[in-house]
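Transcriptional regulator, AraC family, human gut metagenome. Tokens?
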Amino acid sequence: NTITVLETSSGMDHAAVRGVENRTLVLQCTVLHRYALMMHYCLTGNHLAISDINSEFLAQVRNTVQQPAHDRHKVWMAEQGLLQMVRTGDLNYRQALSASMGISAGVPVRSDDALRQSKTSIIVFTSLVCRAAIEGGLSPEEAYALGDSYIQSAENAKTLEDLEPLGLMMYDDFVRRVHKCRTNPHLSQQVQKCVDYIEMNLDKKIRAADIAALVGYTEYYMTHKFKEETGLSVTDYIKFAKIERAKVLLKSTNQTVQDIAAALSFSTRNYFSRIFQEVTGQTPMEYREK
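Tokens:
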């Protein structure tokens, strides 16, 4: 919590004021409290403790200056999108995770303690991710032990700086573990490498020639081996993977259909919509609104 104080005084001339009119000094509330105590002592000769300061008014101000209420349905959709990426072990989750942060900043618990509120949000998020990982195939023993470890780390955090990287670290850890346990044992190492490359590059135009070069095969041999092992042509696999990602973005973010089409490197919105309907039987907007 900070208080912003304008750097002006009654003794300053107009030129000086103009020179600092856009400058502000930001003080932490704890520092401001100490200044207030020092000034009180200088004026009255009485010593006070920080606990003697009535922070009720400041708390009321903080509670009244709330962000606009989030659309609960959008929050739920964003949550489901993120949890689905855990269930499928989708390593290319960062775009959806980043966009979802704009929909909800966490559990809306009113508290004067920002650290406690952040801990609550991470603990709730960890619990949801842990259960999604189990649904994705991670063993309950491993999932619960991992979740408990991250929850304990959150509780042990002393500052917001300690807590800040924990949520992303936890999410990434669970996604990677689910991805590993869902790796198809029937795929050769080379074809699995092709599959992983496609999943990690859905925002790009993916060419069969590039995938073949990645594993040291000719394009002809790679495309035949890929279809033999996966049951899909490279082109169809890429198409289905991009539509699955589009479904997550439609449900978990506020991005427009145009933006999602561009983010997944479809040449036009109309082409994206046509492929989406071909795969799902619905237009992107019908899917988003259902």
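Residues 2-64 form one domain.
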